[in-house]
Each structure stands twice: as structure tokens, then as C-alpha cells.
Amino acid sequence: MIKIVKNKEKFLQFRQVCTVFGIAALPLFLVGTPASADKLDDIVSSGALRCGVMLDFPPLGYRDASGNPAGFDVETCNDIATQLGVKPEIVETQAPQRVPALVSGTVDIVVGGTTPTLERAKTVTFTDPYNVGKLVVVTGSANKISGFDELKGKSVALVRGTLPETAYLAACNGWSEGCKNLSLANNAEQITAVRQGRANAMIETNSFMSALKASPQGVDLEICCNVPGFTDWTSIAVPKGEYGLRDWLNLFIFWQVDSGRYAELYQKYYGTDAPSLQPGN
After folding, report:
1. Per CATH, which fold does 134-231 belong to?
2. What is the pLDDT of residues 128-163, one digit of tens each?
3. What are phi and psi of 39, to 5 degrees?
4. pTM exceeds 0.85, yes or no
5. At what angle are helices 243-259 and 261-270 packed, to 10 degrees?
6. Do domains 8-133+233-270 and 134-231 have the same CATH topology?
7. H-type alpha helices, 85-162
8. Does domain 8-133+233-270 have CATH number 3.30.240.20?
9. What 8-state DSSP symbol labels residue 215?
10. Can you give the residue ranges of the Solute-binding protein family 3/N-terminal domain (predicted)?
11. Domain locations in the chain?
């Protein structure tokens, strides 16, 4: 693991070394022009890192039996803070509020299963992917289907502002039956809609559904099939134009993978070997 940086002077020396190393040894990482304001220095000076994390989205984020934040994203935030030598602060952030929380300054970064879409990139800046998954169609026991195309003409529960919503709308806009999406604020509402029959199905990530199926809350839900053509790459989001912070986080992600920490966390929270973070692998 990277040596923990205890103070700002050492941190700045460390950052200079990281920048040189990132350019020389990691040419695939994007190195941007320094922003006029340096969020990275501000975080170190403040002594705290405020991470926006979804705590209703296991195994990425949830509350344990004692009510404390836990999950893959929570531990990733803690690891980032450790390497910066600051205190982690987990700010519970629902899916539709991830980008607004970053823009408003409520959080410093978002480690919340955020897909780096081109539309979102107009508003915030993204790192390289730190996690990856697939999208799946889920039904209740009374509404089983066998393929994605069978969603035509059926109501689908979706969480607003998420990749599952984007994937469904991209498909249904080309269907003669049109779109029958039920737009909801969070996963709890989404699951309830399927259970109550207000929606025939829902679309979510395979990681979320694997965790849900392993719990009592998922006993009556069935994973039907993958959504074709969509890989759920997830990145850390930072304020728009904060390239120094983004570049440092890209190097952090590299070390998480190279040190085995990424694989360790993935095995802990998903129960399987970690997938490659390189497209095409």
C-alpha cells in the first residue's frame, strides 16, 4: 500500500512524485491542465474528505447492524482519506442527488456507483473506472419474463438519474409500444412498486441485485436476464475542472488495483473474483 501522508508539506512532495510517475509510467491516464482552484490542496488543508455515498445500495453502500456506514464505496472512501492523511466523512447521498451534491459543494467527491456518462461529464469531472458491473432485469414472482425484449408494453420501475433509467429509455424510445417507465426516487420505492404490482419489472445493477437476493428482502424477486449492450462502468466524480484531484485519484485507483486492495474489497463485498477494470477484458 502507499505510505500514508501525515502533513501538507509531505503531501505536496508526494503529489509531485505522483504526477511525474503518472506521466512517465501511466500514459493511459489523462493528465489535465491544472485548475485555477486546487480542490486537492483544500481537502488536505481542511483535514477532512467529504464523500457522497449511497447508503441504500448494497454492497456499495449500506448501514450495518449498528447503523454505521459500510460497503465497497464506504471502504474506498476511507482508503482515499487514509492516503491523503485526512479524516473521512461519509455523506449519505441518494442517486438523483449525487451530481447536485457535488455541484453545490455539499461533498468533495462522489464515491457512489456513478456511471461516467457523456451528459454528466458536462457538469462534473470523472476519474478512470474504479468498479464495473452489468445491468439486469428483475421481476416479482408473479411477473416472470425470459428476455429484455419482453419488457415491451410492460411497466418498468426505475430510479431517476441512473444508468438503468438511461438504458431503458434508450431502448423503449425505439419500441412501437413506447416507454412505460415508473420514475422513482430510490431503490426502496422501486422494489415496493414491483412487489405491489405497480410495475411489471425493474432494472438494476447485478451487484445490487446479488446483495439483495442474498438478504430476506430479495427472497421474492427474480433476476431474469442482462440488459444487452450496457456495461456499468463506475467512476469517482469530482467538481468540474478539478484535474489535480482527478489525476491524484486516478493514481490512487491504479495503486488500489496493483496492491490487491481492489480485489480484496471486491471479494469481501461481492463474494467473487474482481473483474478487470480495462474495457474489452
Report:
1. D-Maltodextrin-Binding Protein; domain 2 (3.40.190)
2. 999 998 899 999 988 888 899 999 999 999 999 998
3. -65, -35
4. no
5. 80
6. yes
7. 98-104
8. no
9. S
10. 48-273
11. 8-133+233-270, 134-231
